[in-house]
Amino acid sequence: MRILENESMAIYSSFRIGGNAKRVCFPETREELVSLIRELRMNGEKYAVFGNCSNVLFPDEGYDGTLILTTDLVDVLVYGNVIVADCGATMNKLSIVASRNSLKGMECLYGIPGTVGGGIAMNAGAYGGTISDYIIGVSVLTDEGEIKELSKEDMEFEYRNTVVLKKGYIVLGGRFMLEEGNEEEIRQLMDKNMNSRKTKQPLSYPSAGSFFKRPEGYFAGALIEGAGLKGYRIGGAQVSELHAGFIINVGDATAKDVKRLSEYVVRHVKKEFGVTLEREVRFFGID
Ligand SMILES: Cc1cc2nc3c(=O)[nH]c(=O)nc-3n(C[C@H](O)[C@H](O)[C@H](O)COP(=O)(O)OP(=O)(O)OC[C@H]3O[C@@H](n4cnc5c(N)ncnc54)[C@H](O)[C@@H]3O)c2cc1C
Questions:
Q1: Are 67 and 9 in contact (CB under 8 A)?
Q2: Catalytic option among 14, 160, 175, 262
Q3: pLDDT tens, 31-65?
Q4: For atom 2 of ligand 1, which residue has the closest CA?
């Protein structure tokens, strides 16, 4: 297992923001991940588990604990129509493996820059689908240190929320039951989704994707644009000109810049439309 001391969190965050963590660990197997967490818990040490850090804002001040990143835990195995994926495998890998095996259902995940564990925790989704659609089981480490197999119902999948986030479980991996399809057609849909991302999202700037959840009956981006905030900037953080639902790092943004800008956006959208925007991006160690 790779262990790095006093390591910058900004390197790993898709926002490219964050101070140093006391330690960053990269377990390579589920067993290594579980024993590391059990050991840290037993010693009363601070730790936090992330995947590809594509939906998190890390604090400028750093983290006086162990950051566990699952990105070296990457197996995706196919058994007929069932795919078993480790928590650290990317959702891109999951959808590519599915397509190569002529299995459909994962196309909507193609292009979401997170891991299976992060995707399951957040119930990630796009283009009308979510990661929960084809899930048949999730292996977790509970807050009490027990390994459990959760059914789809146990997972309490909601819009960008699950029992994993609510109870602080750790996802070790997920099982998906997919439908047989045509490889060429699956691939075409994946490419269509990816091309749509490339034209509609500000992918050349660091960000954490859509910053806010979609409020019932509205689109966050449209509300923010309607409030005249497209391009609005605080420090190095800016409301994207291309997609107002994204807050981007246009140069040396700090977590404080992003936080202040997001609060400004929430205030102005509330004033203009009476709608309260809720954050989708997870603030870690930031009040
Ligand atoms: C350009 C861009 C586009 C995006 N597009 C989309 C999109 O279309 N749809 C969408 O839903 N999201 C999108 N996102 C956001 C993000 O990619 C997803 O939320 C993704 O699911 C996060 O996965 P991750 O591995 O990066 O999680 P992280 O950011 O590392 O973590 C996110 C949360 O999940 C928790 N977590 C991570 N791994 C585990 C684990 N193994 N066990 C328990 N908890 C865990 C973390 O503690 C944290 O609370 C986008 C982001 C970017 C930068």
A1: yes
A2: 160
A3: 999 999 999 999 999 999 999 999 999 999 999 99
A4: 209
| Domains with residue ranges and CATH for the chain | 2-69 (3.30.43.10), 76-198 (3.30.465.10), 202-283 (3.90.78.10)
Q: Is 103 in the pocket of ligand 1 (CB under 6 A)?
A: no
Is the beta carbon of 164 within 6 A of some atom in ligand 1?
Answer: yes
DSSP class of residue 161 equals: B
pLDDT tens-digit series, residues 92-107: 999 999 999 999 999 9
Which atom of ligand 1 approaches the CA of 206 most closely? 53
Catalytic residue flag (residue 210) = yes
Q: What is the pTM of this model?
A: 0.96
Would you say the CB of residue 14 lies under 6 angstroms from ligand 1? yes
Element (H, E) at 163: helix 163-167
Nearest-CA neighbor of 72 among 97, 57, 51? 51
